[in-house]
Amino acid sequence: MAQPSHAFDRKYFSSGSYDSYKDDVLSWTRPMARKIFSYIKDSKHHRVLDVGCAEGYLMDELYTKYDAEVQGIEFSTHALFRALPSIKKFITKSSLFDAQIPSRKYDAIICFDVFEYLTPSENKKAAQILVRASRDYIFFANPYKHSFQGSQKLNPDSLRITAFTQKEYQKIFKDAGARSVGTFNAGSGSDILVFRTRK
C-alpha cells in the first residue's frame, strides 16, 4: 500500500470533494444500495464486501434496508473510529492487500475510490484480489482520467497516485478474469463499472 493509514485522517475527510462528507454520502447511498441489491436480489445469502467502506453508510443501508450480510474493509483509523454503530462490528481495519478475504465468498464486492491511492502495479494486484473473492458481481468506481473527479486542478487530492480511463480499468479487470457487463450512475458523482466473475 503506497499511502500510510494515518494519511486518511480528519483533514482528508473534510477537504477537496469531501467538504460535507456525511451530507455528500447520504445523498447517494440510498439509490446506490437499491441499485446494487437489484443485481444480487436472487442470490441465496446477499453477501456483500465493501472495500474502503469509510464510515459505513452504504453498508448500513444494505444491512438495515435489505438484510444483506455485510463485511467491510477500511484502512483509515479515523474513518473506523467514526463508523456507524450498526455496522462497526462488521468492519475490519486493514489494507486490501493485508486483509484475509475468502475466495469466491461474496455475491457483490463494492470498491469505490480506492485504486487511485495505489500504484499501477498495485491496481493490477488489487483487481486480482477482488476477482478471486467475488462469486458474481464487482461494483467499481474511481476518479477517472479526464474527469472532474480525476483532475488534480479541479478536485485536488495530494494522496492520489493514479487515475485511468474507464476503458483502462475495464482492461485491468478483464486481465484479472472479470468481464464488463455495464455501467450505471446512482448519484455518487462517478459512473459505476459493473463486472461479473460468474461464468
Describe the structure.
With 199 residues, the protein is α/β, with parallel strands linked by helices. It has a single domain, classed as Vaccinia Virus protein VP39 (Rossmann fold). It is 30% helix and 20% strand. The protein has five helices and seven strands, in the order αβαβαββαβαββ. Strands 3-2-1-4-5-7-6 form a seven-stranded mixed β-sheet, with helices on both faces. A hairpin with a 7-residue loop joins β6 and β7 (192-196). The two termini are 31 Å apart.
- Mean pLDDT, to the nearest integer, reads 91
Relative helix content: 25-40%
Order of helices and strands: HEHEHEEHEHEE
Give the quaternary arrangement of the chains: single chain
At the third CATH level, what is the topology name?
A: Rossmann fold
Approximate strand percentage: 15-25%
Largest sheet at a glance? 7 strands, mixed
Morphology call:
globular
Sheet with the most strands: spatial strand order = 3-2-1-4-5-7-6
State the fourth-level CATH superfamily: Vaccinia Virus protein VP39
